[in-house]
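User: Could you check the structure of this?
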Amino acid sequence: MSVITDDPAGVSREVEALRQEVAGPVLLPGDEGFAAEVSGFNVATRHHPVVVVGAMGEGDVQAAVRFAARHGLPVAVQATGHGAATAADGAVMITTRRMRAVTVDPSARTATIAAGATWSEVIERTAQYGLAPLCGSAPGVGAVGYTLGGGIGPISRTYGFAADHVRELTVVTADGDARVADATREPDLFWALRGGKGSFGVVTSMTVDLFPVATLYGGGIFFPAEDAAGVLHAYRDWVDTLPETTTTSVALLRLPPLPELPPELRGRFVAHLRFAHLGEAQEGERLLAPMRAAGRPLIDTVSRMPFAAIGSIHQDPEGPMPAWDRGALLRELTADTVDAILATAGPDVEVPFAVVELRHLGGALARPARPENAVGGRDAAFSLMVIGAPVPELFEAVIPAAAGAVFGAVEPWLTGGALLNFLGAETAPEQIARAWTRPVLSRLARLREVYDPQRMFRFGHAVPDLPEGD
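Assistant: Sure, the predicted structure tokens are below.
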């Protein structure tokens, strides 16, 4: 039996002992600051942990994990809370937002990033050396969680998944030990963490490759609703002409009538083309010309830009906000696929979506990592993502049903797989299993028996158990 859950009088004694070990705050429900500590970007996911530890460093993480192990409690980890798929109820929650150190080695072209640092903080440190990390489209996302889940962003077709360029990880495993994992030390753990995300421990820092990218030719073009069909069909043909130095996506947006939005976009349905080219501006203009001619742009922001402005390409919300999303992978994008998306999510359909997005994959994303890792989805040509309107009352049934209609319409073109970071609302074991091939999933499950036999790290999109006898 756990003192924490079965003996309220023992809670104070046990937690007080933990406080003596930990440099950061240790908070119980009802304590001042508890609600703010457990809250993250996705405010629709409300956590009710037994205790939350605001870790200041690796020692705090070790103390929290050992505390959880002594009391038979699961462990949840949160940096920014962008990937908060399941509530951390009954857990020891470790928040890493105070662990923000970023150390750049410009000669080695690497950055060592602590568990709670965001990509914007990494970019700020690396940009002064003319170097860039493989960040996502939203720089406010936590760097470590994003990378462990694979990580695709605005320049991924050129360099591949963020997880493919990890040099070293430091991780606190279920026994409370801090281990260094790389290609030669703990190679199985190193393989599993890069693509298996949080199922094997709490990563306290990672060292990643940086790339000599100081500027790029990029931005976005917004088209009106009446051009959406033409833009999507043009996009389908256009992407086949693009080199690996160009990464793109296109999204159907239903924008709210907010005063902070430009008047041309306020309260409108628009198609948003995102474009990032690593090369000369003149070549980028030539490549982009067919899409600029595909409609009548409302706003065109594509130009030569510093890498530090990478977040302006997608213009993702910086929020906290309630969020619901679900993703899948397409093996191809045909004219019929586009028509199916338009029929279920286009401007002529009343659906409770904020975003329906297609990301062009391939290029370096299709090639295996060296050394290999557990990241799946390399066989896909496109990612399809549906993000619901930020109305929590619709998250239970209305938005899932409407999204189900979209994915049902494109079912003939689905690979059957998924990107782990884009699973979103899909949290059932059989849904999570789609993120990996069967051999990779089997290896991950075996390694989980080694590193976390008690399933302490079971929140979010954790590696599921294999069926008995498998």
